[in-house]
Design goal:
By secondary structure, this protein is α/β, with parallel strands linked by helices. Helices cover about 40% and strands about 15% of the residues. Helix 12 crosses helix 13. The protein binds 1,4-dihydronicotinamide adenine dinucleotide and magnesium ion (MG). Magnesium ion (MG) binds near residues 267 and 271. 1,4-dihydronicotinamide adenine dinucleotide binds near residues 70, 72 and 98.
Length: about 375
């Protein structure tokens, strides 16, 4: 029996292109693993009314971890339009499968390293090496949303002094998304960020929030961060508001080492950080829980490039590196990162986003050639 059982969910669009690149590299690394493919994504929404069929959740429960490509998500209105006519008006509603998976498997920590590899012409600076820790199951992405606002909810909310000015608005003209932050959720993501800083020898952790305005949810994050930092002597806590952070990240990105954010702010901040080190084509991520993990590039399905094998596989290959770390395969992980770094530095084989014309699979092949060196 193979040492690792890995679920493979290519998903939609370029998720499939970059998964093929990952397979080339995994085969060459000879990872002792069994790969089990699964169904996820837009075609299953259209045909079954469920972008994450139960058989796929079951598959994941029987594996050690999952490698995920990308999925396509659309607004409520557009999703309903594309549903198989036979399934219409039967109560199906679209919900992003990756968001659902993060919640279902309690993958509380989304770790997104953004490192400037030498020789990448798109690096904003060459000395950027930071990691974003994004809370992954709560916050504004909890999925607790209303439109129109139910009567009974308005009755409760109306007691809040700041709600008064909305009480005259018709309920069918109010949409509400809840930012739910639990103490456990806040403490878990903040602790993960500090643990990572300690293990990797980094000296500061920056909480990216907005507690001056989001007084309760932001306030809870701040309070818990100030409590947890006391357990980590030698590591400093910096507190920066999300808006100012966007400015600082463009001004002095080299000053930051570990960022910790609630779900939405982490989503936004990590795309900004990705662009500092070459764009979404270089941004890997790991969704980690206590018992399971899903690895996926930060980018989405980029529909306009579907099936063209044009996009950069580096984000996916760096994601494979994170998966190897999780599986305890540190030797293979080290070899893979060195090969990736060498290919970037040599710059002979590059996809369109860094000014080249190599295909997704040619880049993967070049990485495998460098693995052997
Ligand atoms: P996206 O990440 O798919 O693409 C944005 C743009 O970034 C692309 O048009 C392309 O110019 C560039 N890009 C992305 N990946 C690249 C790569 N590997 N190499 C080179 N260039 C790359 O984001 P977008 O356009 O906002 O969303 C497209 C679809 O993906 C939507 O349906 C969205 O909901 C979904 N999405 C899914 C995610 C996931 O699966 N976790 C994450 C983000 C978006
Ligand atoms: Mg995102």
């Amino acid at each position: 029996m193979a040492r690792h059982r890995i679920a493979i969910l290519p998903g939609d669009g370029i998720g499939r292109d970059v998964m093929d690149a990952a397979k080339i590299v995994l085969d060459k690394l000879k990872l002792d693993a069994e790969y089990i493919p699964g169904d996820v994504g837009w075609e299953f929404w259209k045909s079954e009314g469920n972008a994450l069929p139960e058989r796929t959740s079951k598959l994941l429960r029987n594996t050690d971890c999952c490698l995920f490509g990308a999925i396509t998500s659309k607004s409520k209105e557009d999703s309903e339009k594309e549903l198989n006519p036979e399934l219409k008006d039967k109560g199906y509603s679209y919900y992003s499968p990756i968001v659902k998976l993060r919640q279902e498997f309690n993958l509380h920590t989304n770790m997104r390293p953004c490192k400037a590899y030498k020789g990448n012409p798109l690096n904003f600076r060459d000395d950027i090496d930071l990691v974003v820790f994004r809370e992954n199951t709560e916050g504004l992405y909890s999925g607790v949303e209303y439109y129109p606002l139910p009567d009974e909810l308005m009755a409760v909310l109306a007691k809040h002094p700041r709600m008064k000015r909305f009480t005259t608005v018709p309920l069918e003209d109010i949409a509400l998304s809840c930012r739910i932050i639990t103490r456990t959720g806040a403490r878990t993501i903040i602790r993960q960020a500090f643990e990572y800083a300690r293990k990797s020898g980094r000296k500061n952790v920056t909480l990216v929030e907005k507690p001056n305005v989001l007084r309760e949810t932001g306030g809870l994050m701040l309070h818990e961060a100030r409590d947890i930092v006391s357990e980590y002597p030698g590591i400093e806590l910096q507190e920066v508001n999300i808006d100012a952070m966007c400015m600082w990240l463009v001004k002095n990105p080299q000053d930051y080492q570990v960022l910790v954010c609630a779900n939405l702010f982490g989503d936004i901040t990590s795309d900004l950080c990705a662009q500092l080190v070459g764009g979404l084509g270089f941004a890997p991520s790991a969704n980690i829980g206590n018992n399971y993990a899903i690895f996926e590039p930060t980018h989405g399905s980029a529909p306009k490039y579907t099936g063209q094998y044009k996009v950069n596989p580096m984000a996916m290959l760096l994601t494979v590196k994170l998966m190897l770390d999780y599986l305890g395969e540190s030797e293979l992980s080290g070899r893979l990162e060195e090969a990736i770094a060498r290919v970037i530095k040599e710059g002979k084989i590059r996809t369109y986003d860094i000014g080249g014309n190599a295909s997704t699979l040619e880049v993967a092949e070049e990485v495998t050639r460098n693995l052997a060196l």
